[in-house]
Amino acid sequence: MAESWTAGAQRRAWLSAALLSVALLIAPFLVWLLLPRPVPVMPARRELAPAPLAPAQPEHAAPREVEAEPPPPPPPPPPPRETTAASAGPVRGVVVDPEGRPVAGATVRCSDEPGLSASADAEGRFELPPEADGCTATAAQPPFGDAQPTRVAAGGENVLHLIGTGSIAGEVVDPSGRPVEAYLLAIESFLPVGSGAHAGVNGRARKVSDPSGAFQLDELAPGRYVLTVSAAGRPPARSAPIDVEAGRAARFVRIVLPQGATLRGRVVDAESRAPVVEAQVELDSATSSGANAISLALTDANGDYELQGVPASGPFSVRVRHEQYMAKIVPGLDARGASSLRADIEIRLLGDGGSREELTGIGAMLSLSPSGVTIAGIIEGGPAALAGLAQGDVIVRIDGEPAADLPLADCIQRLRGRAGTRVTVGVDRGGHILDVTMRRDVVVH
């Protein structure tokens, strides 16, 4: 019985193990059947850089080391002017008048190289150095107008044509319109057409005597003119600006000569108060051309003088001279429309210091240049020097009035004045405008 029970138990154990094994094999299959199927997953595309991206870098930070290229050198400056193959030789040519005739003595210069110049010979021919090859040249010879700028070249036939002349015709009358028969006529100022300066044109004075008061000036270079007229007993008067064109006459110019006033006074020694005999009293800087028909006055035994024909209105100056005394300029005189005025003048004996003249103003000497009214000199220790003005400064305004609208003589009179009075001057220095206020003073030099 025991053996039979043991064999039955062994069979039961093997059967249980077999059933358990089958269950373990069937269970995953049943789970697979009962659970929902997952969506098929496509294989991921292979990326070149699966790692997280690094921060962006500037464009110039290249992944490889390179040496920065230096910036290209600046291009060479262009030559100042064109040159020709024959630049080894001089530049030759001829200057001719409007009719094509050679003009002797004309001045030829390169406008872009002012240091290169020459003079035409008796046949109008000129020769510039080789450095002038390719420059822009012009020629000047009064009374003609300047030649038009022309590019010249070595080895070429260079011809510079001067511009033709014009003329001015007109009359001189008194305030009532009656002709003034005898007077002195001069060119007060001249602004040429072009860049040339015509030295010697200003101040071309001549005596005119005509019953109708008529005058005519011929062979005038093209440009803008201002004329000055003066007659005995009448102060100098100026014309309005006159434009002269080549080959044409500017006609119907009328200049009115006003009646003058009389200046009276006495000249005495500044120390002793004794009268100075035979001192000369005359208008000073009434015109820039020097065309002044007003005769000077001499003091008598009492030192008295009488100068006829001074301006009846507006400031003017007189100069007093004597061989034993310093010359003295008395500024700021004004008859204010009256027929006469008085000015007593003290002058000082010449000393050992070398000073020859005494004046009251700013202590600057003026001249007319192509740039305008220019300071030609400064008196040491004068108001202009103390204010910092310098030779070469161009005066652009005086007390607010444009200097370009004033003749040189008027600029001089406005800068002069009584000691202690003020004047404001605007000057152009290298393109910068400076306004300077000065107190006029007595200047001895």
Automatic annotation (TrEMBL):
All residue ranges annotated as the PDZ domain in the record: 344-416
Sequence segments annotated as region (Disordered): 54-99
GO BP term, example: signal transduction
Annotated Pro residues bias: 69-81
GO terms assigned for molecular function: carbohydrate binding; endopeptidase activity
Residue ranges of the TM segments: 12-35
GO cellular component terms listed in the entry, alphabetical order: outer membrane-bounded periplasmic space
Coiled coil: none
Short name of any one Pfam family annotated for the protein: CarboxypepD_reg
Domain of life of the native organism: Bacteria
Cited SMART domains: PDZ
Keywords: Membrane, Transmembrane, Transmembrane helix
Protein name: PDZ domain-containing protein
Organism, scientific name: Sorangium cellulosum
